[in-house]
Amino acid sequence: MSHFRLDRIYALAFGVIIVLVICFLCLRMQRFNSLKSAKASDMSELARLNARLNQAMVSEGLATDIPIYDPNIKITSGLMRLNRTMIQPILKPASGKRDAAVFYIRALNAYNKQRQPYLFDRALRTYIHEPPITQAELVDILTGAGQRHCNFYVLWHNRPEFAFIRYAAVRYTHLRTTRRISFQRYADPFQQPSFITPMRSLAQVAMNRGLTDEKHGEYAAAKRIDLAVIRMGAHLQENPGSLSQLELGFDITRNGLHYLVHLLRKHGTAGELKRYNRLANIVDSALMAERLKYADLDDVEMSAITAQDDPSPMWRVEAVVSLISRLKRDDLNGEQRRLAQAVLWEAKHGNVGWVRQTVAYMEHLPTVAYADSKINTHTKMRSDPPSELGL
Questions:
Q1: Residue 214: which pLDDT band, with cuts at 50, 70 and 90?
Q2: Predicted model pTM
Q3: pLDDT value at residue 345
Q4: Rounded to the nearest 5°, which phi and psi values hold at 182?
Q5: Domain ranges within the chain, ordered by starting residue
Q6: Closest residue by Cα to residue 134 from 209, 72, 200, 75
């Protein structure tokens, strides 16, 4: 009889333990969901602002009823979309079915080839004389702006299809060397893409051509160029391979709008000037949202949410880099460390190849080399044994 009572006591104790474990897991899930709700409430004011701006754009006929960007807690890299009706009737609607990157890369490589001699003639000057854009390069930019989508990172048989051609010359000789750099998403998040500076220069010389056309009285041609540059900046934001490419897209778009507004102040109508000033405000608010999102990654819980739920691979990469950085600095409490390790384990075994490569790279990067790589973006990986992150 005593043995029977003892078995019942053991069974009851075991059942109580199971109930307590289930309650603990439910509380953890509830806390994680409350973090998402808090993030949604923090972004509600910005979402309402951009919803009003988008409604005003629709009423002005500048945009369709598609939101300028999705006003929810996931602010993605595609948060700003320039609609096809924006550039009518100066530029044809963006109805092309080809990849706009084909034309942009062709213009970029052609321009970079004629740009190299100017780099060698820089001498001790603090600036570079950039060559003017050619008609063929300008046509490629206009054609690319007429396409609906853009992706620089297309794969063909698991290899990058597009490449940036870097030309190198030896001073006072006719020797020329070329280096083919594929458009690929690097596992090292601090590696600067080589096409950033030439692409910015290409956009600038295109806008300089627009200024020349304006001086010659060809206002429609100048406006068409500015609108194409604005669309090119928007295309750079569609599938970014790095945060620097996303910032480049915003920079080009804002510069194009600056040149266009300056043109419309002298040769445009009041309605056009009002619409494009409003579009410039929308782009500024989108840029602010993008930088606020990057600042939020310093929080462990927000980084965990971004690494798991964000639809943009670029933001997932930034989130896992932030988590690994906090683990390497060893400034997390026990609960935060367990959360970061669980999220990183999921990212390392997830279905996004770019995220997996970044986690593997950062995992095997020693702490000292990691700190140096934040200062020098070209720091090479060392051959030290991998650090333990608990992944």
A1: very high
A2: 0.69
A3: 92
A4: -70, 145
A5: 2-34, 76-269, 297-375
A6: 209
